[in-house]
Amino acid sequence: MLKVIIWLFLTTLSCGGAVVYALHQQYQEQSAEFRILYRDITVKLAQNDVILALLSNSSDPAVVQQKFPYILRWQTKPHEPPRPDINPARAGTYWINSPQGSLLIDLPALLADFVHPQKFHHFSLSWKDVPLLMQGGDGKDDWWRWEKQIASPSQPLNLAVTHHPDWRSLPWLALLFVGVFWAVVIYFYNQYQVTKRQRNIADLRAHYSELARLNAMGEMAAGMVHELNQPLTAILSYSQTAQRLIKQQQAEKAQPLLDASVIQTKRISALLLEFREKLHSDEQVLQAVSLSKVWERVVMLLGNEIERGKINVINQIPESLPSLIASPLGIEQIFHNLLNNAIQAQRQTAKPWVAVNARLTANSMVLSVTDGGPGLSEQALQQVFMPFYTTRQDGLGLGMALTETLVQRLNGSIRAENSAAGGACFTLTFPRAQQEA
């Protein structure tokens, strides 16, 4: 909606400016036409003064009428009593009076070359508010008006013209392109902002992915200590028993115990190697991963938290589900973050539970992790995958951002929503091309 308002504002502003400019151009053109008309009429009326001075009683009326058809009558004697300089007669005619004599002028005939082809909507010549010649409409509703008195001592007539804009000549096609132009600008600016935002998010994820991994590994460390404690306890027990047997001169019985200690030591080495690989930042080789086994391992790693929170963990991953070609560590991190978040969200829930489900569709494998917690707020649904967004006081807000990154590395997608029961539900979708039959 905001983009539409901005587009309307910019388009209106630009089109308004273009229309004002076009109208100004029309006004300037009409002003130039008025100046030309004023000059021509002034020159034409000035001829009457010259004619009045040259006429005499002996002048041939036929010759005068032939040369000056707009002169209807004349006399070379002044009127008694004297008349005004201009004396209107019938419509369109007036007397020019001077000490040399008088002329009866037919104004329409005099200005025929200017009045009929004139480009104004309204044209009028008047003397002391008495109209002598009027052409066109009344001009009351016209936008523009030009008015000026003719610079003639004997004929100071008032010239007035009006006109209105020619809306048909406005640059309508250009105005249309203005709207299209701003729409394109806003679209590409929006795309730039989206790309910039995605790039910033990607930079944040890349910058803090190591920190997020260490945060996740820190939580996994408790489970690793638990796994190491068992073989270390066994090694200690085997070694102490072997020492007693050797002191008792029963060395042959100590040999199996020492062999068992070696086996347990190798197991510790394998566990430490696996843990070091989890902390390694390089790309890992993709391989067939059993989602059910990885989930069971994550449940074991978070066993203390599950037992402490009395969480009922429901595994609904079918045994017949094909393996997923992925990084075992990546899948483990995804499950670990989702399960840990579900545990943390149900600290105040009376009967907490977490269920994992997997199914196949025509083109993908769909996994869902649902909990019995209070669900996600509207803000959390929109920002749950944003770096540093967290609803926990002790959280860093990097777990779900890293989870989304790991899912996308496998060409998959993840969606957060609330289930019908009210708890949070995270749905992961992976293409079937990454599945192993």
Automatic annotation (TrEMBL):
Matches recorded under InterPro entries: HATPase_C_sf, HATPase_dom, His_kinase_dom, HisK_dim/P_dom, HisK_dim/P_sf, Sig_transdc_His_kin-like_C
Protein name: histidine kinase
Any one GO MF annotation of this record: phosphorelay sensor kinase activity
The keyword Nuclease is annotated on this UniProt entry: no
Residue ranges crossing the lipid bilayer per the database entry: 170-189
Catalytic activity: ATP + protein L-histidine = ADP + protein N-phospho-L-histidine
SUPFAM superfamilies to which the protein is assigned, alphabetical: ATPase domain of HSP90 chaperone/DNA topoisomerase II/histidine kinase, Homodimeric domain of signal transducing histidine kinase
Species whose genome carries this gene: Buttiauxella warmboldiae
Source species, domain of life: Bacteria
